[in-house]
Structures are given as C-alpha cells and as structure tokens.
Write a structure and sequence with these properties.
5 helices; 114 residues; c-terminal domain of poly(a) binding protein; rod-shaped; mainly alpha
Length: 114
C-alpha cells in the first residue's frame, strides 16, 4: 500500500507561511526552510518587542514631562516627588499628553505643587 502524505495539508501550510514572508529579502521570501526559520524568529522578536514597547513609551513620556517641567523651573524628579507628596494621582502617560497637547493644564498642575 502506498504511503499517505496528505500533500494538500502540507502544501497549504507551506503556502501560508510563504505568504507571511512576502516582502522579505532574498531567499527569506521564497525558499521554504529559510522562510520558515525567518518567520519563526520573527515571532520571537514580536513577543520580546511587545514588552520592550512598554519600556520605550514610558521613557518617551518621562522625557516629555522632564522637558515641560524644566520650562516651569522644576526637574522631572522634583515634579514627580512633589506630585506624590501632594497626593495627586496622575500617571505619566496622561501627564506627558497634557505637557504636549495642553500646556495650560500642565502649568496649572505644576503651580499646584509649587
């Protein structure tokens, strides 16, 4: 009896992964083993960078808050320390958004803690 390999399913799997690697450079887009390895490696990068994205955004928010606070005569650490001491519960994401898009509101918050 001949060996059954279910070529329909295996070919469909190869087509699916080769479709996902379209746009890659060189053999990474059309050679099955290279494309599969590249795609798998890309999944690990995606997993890692979903976590790194949170770090990157927090750093961006801190830089924006620091720049806006220095215009008001405070450093970032002084501002955050005084906010904590006053009991003002506002996160860095919102504070950075206020600093960029609504400087008057940010200035009001700084005046409250001075």
């Amino acid at each position: 009896m001949p060996r059954s390999v279910n070529h329909v399913a295996s070919r469909a799997k190869r087509k699916r992964i080769l479709k996902l690697t379209r746009g890659y450079f060189g053999a990474r887009k059309n050679v099955w083993t290279v494309a599969k390895n590249t795609w798998e490696k890309g999944l690990t990068y995606a997993f890692r960078d979903r976590r790194n994205k949170k770090r990157t955004f927090r750093a961006l928010w801190i830089q924006r808050i620091n720049a806006a606070a220095r215009l008001e005569g405070l450093s970032y650490s002084q501002l955050m320390g005084r906010l904590h001491k006053e009991g003002i519960e506002i996160n860095r994401k919102v504070l950075a958004d206020l600093a960029v898009n609504n400087p008057q509101a940010f200035k009001a918050i700084v005046e409250k803690v001075k």
